[in-house]
UniProtKB/TrEMBL annotation, chain A:
It is found in: Periplasm. The complex is composed of two ATP-binding proteins (UgpC), two transmembrane proteins (UgpA and UgpE) and a solute-binding protein (UgpB). Its main location: periplasm. Coiled coil: none annotated. This is sn-glycerol-3-phosphate-binding periplasmic protein UgpB. Belongs to the bacterial solute-binding protein 1 family. GO terms for biological process: transmembrane transport. It comes from the Bacteria. Residues 1-24 form the signal peptide. Keywords: Periplasm, Signal, Transport. Pfam families: SBP_bac_8. InterPro entries: Bact_solute-bd_prot1 (IPR050490), SBP (IPR006059), SBP_1_CS (IPR006061). It comes from Marinobacterium lutimaris.
UniProtKB/TrEMBL annotation, chain B:
The chain crosses the membrane at residues 28-50, 88-113, 125-145, 173-197, 218-244, 283-304. This is sn-glycerol-3-phosphate transport system permease protein UgpA. It comes from Marinobacterium lutimaris. It holds the Pfam family BPD_transp_1. GO terms for cellular component: plasma membrane. Belongs to the binding-protein-dependent transport system permease family. UgpAE subfamily. Signal peptide: none annotated. The lineage of its organism: Bacteria, Pseudomonadati, Pseudomonadota, Gammaproteobacteria, Oceanospirillales. Keywords: Cell inner membrane, Cell membrane, Membrane, Transmembrane, Transmembrane helix, Transport.
UniProtKB/TrEMBL annotation, chain C:
Belongs to the binding-protein-dependent transport system permease family. NCBIfam families: PRK10973.1 (NF008210). PROSITE patterns: ABC_TM1. This is sn-glycerol-3-phosphate transport system permease protein UgpE. It comes from the Bacteria. The lineage of its organism: Bacteria, Pseudomonadati, Pseudomonadota, Gammaproteobacteria, Oceanospirillales. It comes from Marinobacterium lutimaris.
Length: 436, 310, 282
């Protein structure tokens, strides 16, 4: 009763405030997870949009890391305080898709608002991750990246080696580096994403059943196949000999590369600007993610990481017109090309990639086009389209835990992957039940 | 009579049953006086806690769009999960480590400070301030020093031929969160040990010294037994601290890893609920924790009050 | 004395000095780190001796406004933390004094029930009931407000218990005498009881101030407007850079600034705090 009263009086207060502001621009809240210089760039984009028209004002709010941002949005939705737009990382995709009553699909948003919108303008390797079974785009791609190989050119030269194209090469290059006195050949960031998820895509083998979870909730994990085990077991051997040096979750291992301890780093293409500003004592280069020649002749595309923008239900239709306009602005070649060049995230549209090339950015910054070449080298297969798994955040945690046991020598590759699959499947079943 | 009150909050041991003769009579005044606290407690504690209990019987998607009443299934899942027992064990090891390290250091420092003729006050001032440091910040500072690549202590260890990489080595990760958590607690323990020591009559020491007992022997036979109430009090305080208030440290330093080496009970609740958005499972864990703390409190009333006398 | 005081003293001082060093070392490193440019802190081992960027780093942290990486100036975050810490400390003391006074000095129906109701709040830290509490606060329209930051955290009974313990040691004759002199209950509380509780209140203030200042998860969840960000949360924000690089040269000065107020409070109120803490808890 008291609560109701408070609520209704609050409603009155809000209504009067809104009436007062009727002349002013409609505010659109955008929760994002981009700290540091990326956050500043986001503010710049919003300011650009706000200056371009008078009806709407996009207000970006930095809500912490990806997990914190998503949880905050969920909590806010449950309390009916949700923002219009929230940036959700790729592993949260299945949760967002399953929440049909909470999410306003992008294709429908654009249609309802009468905005011109052609999904074919976007890179299919990116949108594939966020498209429903019947080919409709559910969220707005924003910051997508894909794993690449960064190498210390000076170190490779000193060791008399070329940047490795295949994992077979990697073993030899690593050995040469050790012989030349280096402590560590290569390290990796985001181990689940790079060494299992992208490994599966590149080698064209399934990570999970049901087309990697795209066609049903009763998916089971399959990343304990012989090929997966072989790859992880090889990495474990290299961890012992020093060719591979594990440096922590996420991108915690980057300082190993910066300091010259490890001569190569596999991680997000979006780390480019960070790498460029932090590497001081040597020349670095970018190459494609290696593949196993023994497993596949020509590797498939890698899959993406990063995040997209989801629109949440529950606001006025007038507000959503503003959201739609903002999405159009965000996808414009100029904005996208600038974002892509500044951050190292992939350009989400063909036009933005084209514009970047015309502006001579790739020529002036060798290596920045590696990611996009690698992503678009062929049509994505069922194994390289992406992943759609419920409770994926926790599944990745499970994978992190089990892989760390392998690197530490506490478990064999086979046992750890079996265990990870089993624990992961439990999480998938839980998700299936909650979202039936 | 020992009465404990934790700074940040959720633990008390006191003489609940004692009654006294009230001094004032009024029908409405006492109600008015307790009203603010009662209201805030009801609105911000009892109500949400009741919701957490209710939540533990539900299985729900993250957004609360589909809800299913599942009875005790969340609890059943919890107690059949070997990972949960592992977490419990990790918490026990961690708490033992924090308590032993922090109390050991504090006691040593307090005994020394009790010995010195001059300067005890200065040392007190210089040792007291980490009490004010947020757990999360303590975590960041220690992480920064032990970072395998840039950390200065990791570098020194490396020079000594010891390879430090807590991203890979679970034991080292555990050691690091223990050190960071214990560091923050040194000042609190030190204050209480020093006060306890200063309350021991000098004459006892002098008498023993005349009998020919050396400093170490005097400590074992006189000081330590007389200090036992303080020690016990701090033991409880430190265990509770390690159980419930070190979330910030673990969150900042290891996030439960590597593997599940530093995943404690409270971190697990956070991770399942806040990160995994499994609200039912997380609520069930909260309820288990609530019962655990409740039981601890009762044990203290019954046991501690009777055995340890000042 | 039988043994050699000199050596004993020397050893004691030695051990204490080591302890002080151990306790202070992390802060020294933080200070050193805030005197270097960002790159120096990710490319090699952090040095032990300060560099030359101290003023630049502090200047940048304190100078930047809405374009800083967190979206708000450190000065404003410090101010918000101060408001939150003071609000929690003073609010908690205020309601606790009243409630403890009622429970100790009055007899009224449901007295023990009230007591146990309050007592229950000791059993669950904020972290584990955070989502339902968020919902309540949202329903009351308190998101993004100082009220929302402080009020829910006042709902803990620690202070009430501490004061109750102390009040029970006050001789009942004192209240009797006051009553005979014609002083009402309110007069007694203000003129006699509160002055008597000075050290306890001081200790409580310090404990609660630090508790409030150090909150992290709660402000993180309920603030969506940068105007209400607090500094401990801001530091975590600076660390959450996704694919970018942590600007340690900004994190460390901010950390030092965030440490100053609570450490200052502890040191300034040291005498009262230590006395109050040990007296009430023993």
């Amino acid at each position: 009763m008291a609560r109701k009263m408070v609520r209704s009086s609050l409603g009155v207060a809000l209504a009067s405030v809104m009436a007062f502001n009727a002349q002013a621009a409609t505010q659109i809240e955008w929760w994002h997870a981009m700290g540091g210089t990326l956050g500043e760039k986001i503010n710049e984009i919003a300011a650009g949009f706000n200056a371009s028209q008078d009806d709407y004002e996009v207000k970006p709010v930095f809500k912490g890391n990806y997990t914190e941002t998503m949880t905050a949005a969920v909590a806010a939705f449950r309390a009916k305080q949700q923002p219009h737009i929230v940036q959700v990382f790729e592993v949260g995709t299945a949760s967002m898709m399953a929440a049909e009553g909470a999410v306003y699909p992008t294709w429908k948003l654009m249609e309802d608002a009468g905005e011109a919108f052609d999904p074919d303008n976007y890179l299919s390797a990116i949108t594939g991750y966020y498209t429903s079974d019947d080919g409709k785009m559910l969220s707005m791609p924003f910051n997508s990246s894909t794993p690449v190989l960064y190498y210390n050119a000076d170190a490779l030269e000193k060791a008399g080696a070329e940047p490795p194209k295949t994992w077979e090469d990697m073993g030899q290059v690593g050995q040469k580096l050790l012989d030349a006195g280096y402590k560590c050949g290569f390290t990796t960031g985001w181990q689940s994403w790079v060494q299992l998820e992208n490994f599966s895509a590149r080698q064209d083998i399934p990570f999970a059943s049901n087309n990697n979870g795209f066609s049903g909730l009763d998916t089971v994990l399959e990343f304990n196949s012989d090929k997966h085990v072989q790859h992880i077991a090889q990495l474990a051997d290299w961890q012992k000999s020093g060719i591979f040096g594990y440096g922590g979750r996420r991108s915690d291992s980057l300082p190993k590369f910066y300091s010259g301890e490890c001569a190569m780093y596999m991680g997000s293409s979006a780390s480019y600007s960070g790498v460029k500003s932090s590497v001081q004592d040597f020349e670095f280069g970018v190459a494609q993610l290696p593949y196993w020649q023994s497993m596949i002749d020509s590797p498939k595309n890698t899959i993406i990481g990063g995040a997209t923008l989801w629109t949440l239900q529950g606001h006025d239709s007038e507000d959503y017109k503003g959201v739609a306009q903002f999405f159009t602005y965000l996808s414009s070649p100029e904005v996208q090309a600038d974002w892509h060049q500044f951050t190292g995230y992939l350009p989400i549209t063909h036009a933005a990639a084209e514009l970047t090339r015309e502006q001579g950015f790739y020529a002036a910054n060798p290596g920045t086009d590696v990611a996009i070449t690698q992503m678009t080298s062929g049509e994505p297969t069922a194994n390289s389209k992406g992943l759609r798994l419920g409770n994926f955040v926790q599944i990745r945690d499970v994978i992190n835990e089990e892989l760390e046991k392998v690197w530490a020598g506490d478990a064999s590759a086979k046992d750890a992957l079996d265990e990870a699959v089993e624990r992961g499947n439990d999480l998938l079943r839980k998700f299936e039940r909650a979202n039936r | 009579m020992p009465r404990l009150v934790r700074g940040a909050g959720h633990f008390v041991m006191s003489n609940i049953s004692s009654e006294r003769v009230p001094a004032f009579d009024s029908h409405w005044l006492p109600w008015l006086l307790v009203l603010p606290q009662l209201l805030i407690t009801l609105v911000f504690f009892i109500w949400p806690a009741a919701q957490a209990v209710w939540q533990s019987f539900l299985m729900e998607d993250a957004f609360g769009l589909s809800t299913e009443f599942v009875g005790l299934e969340n609890y059943q899942l919890l107690f059949t999960d070997p990972g949960y027992y592992k977490t419990l064990w990790t918490t026990v090891i961690f708490s033992a480590g924090v308590t032993a390290l922090s109390m050991g250091l504090s006691l040593t420092l307090a005994v020394m400070a009790d010995q010195v003729v001059r300067g005890a006050q200065v040392y007190k001032t210089l040792l007291i301030w980490p009490y004010a440091v947020a757990p999360a910040i303590a975590g960041v500072l220690w992480l920064f020093m032990f970072h395998p690549t840039v950390g200065v202590l990791a570098y020194l260890l490396d020079q000594l031929g010891y390879e430090w990489n807590h991203f890979l080595n679970g034991d080292q990760a555990m050691l690091l969160v223990i050190i960071a958590s214990a560091w923050k607690q040194i000042s609190y323990n030190f204050l209480f040990f020093l006060a306890g020591l200063q309350a021991i009559p000098r004459s006892l020491h002098e008498a023993a010294a005349i009998d020919g007992a050396g400093p170490l022997r005097r400590f074992i036979t006189i000081t330590f037994p007389l200090l036992s109430p303080t020690t016990f009090f701090l033991l409880v305080i430190n265990v509770v601290y390690a159980f419930f208030e070190t979330f910030g440290v673990i969150h900042a330093v290891t996030q439960g890893g590597p593997g599940d080496a530093t995943r404690t009970l409270v971190y697990n609740v956070y991770d399942d609920g806040f990160v995994g958005l499994d609200l039912g499972g997380s609520a069930a864990q909260s309820v288990v924790l609530m019962l655990l703390v409740g039981a601890l409190t009762v044990v203290q009333f019954r046991y501690v009050e009777r055995r340890v006398q000042y | 004395m039988v043994e050699n005081r000199f050596w004993l003293n020397l050893i004691s001082h030695g051990v204490l000095a080591l302890g002080v060093l151990l306790v202070a070392f992390p802060i020294w490193i933080a200070f050193v780190a805030s005197t270097y440019p960002a790159q120096a802190l990710v490319t090699g081992t952090v040095p032990l001796w300060p560099g030359d960027q101290l003023l630049e780093n502090f200047g940048r942290v304190l100078g930047t406004g809405s374009d800083s990486s967190v979206g708000v100036s450190v000065a404003l975050m410090l101010f918000n933390s101060l408001v939150m810490a003071l609000g929690i400390a003073l609010g908690k003391i205020a309601i606790s004094v009243l409630a403890a006074y009622a429970i100790v000095f009055f007899r009224f129906p449901l007295r023990m029930f009230c007591f146990w109701l309050i007592f229950m709040t000791l059993m669950l830290p904020v972290e584990v009931r955070i989502i339902p509490t968020f919902q309540v606060v949202a329903d009351l329209g308190m998101l993004n407000s100082y009220t929302g930051l402080t009020l829910p955290l006042i709902a803990s009974a620690t202070a009430t218990f501490l004061l109750r313990q102390f009040f029970m040691t006050v001789p009942p004759e004192l209240a009797e005498a006051a009553r005979v002199d014609g002083a009402g209950p309110i007069r007694f509380l203000i003129d006699i009881l509160l002055p008597l509780s000075r050290t306890n209140l001081a200790a409580l203030f310090v404990i609660m101030f630090i508790y409030g200042w150090n909150q992290y998860l709660w402000p993180l969840l309920i603030t969506t407007s940068e105007d209400y960000y607090t500094v401990v949360m801001g530091i975590q924000r600076m660390l959450a850079v996704g694919d970018g690089e942590v600007a340690w040269n900004e994190v460390m000065p901010t950390t030092l600034l965030a440490l100053l107020p609570p450490v200052g409070v502890v040191l300034m109120m040291q005498r009262l705090f230590v006395k109050g803490l040990i007296e009430t808890e023993k």
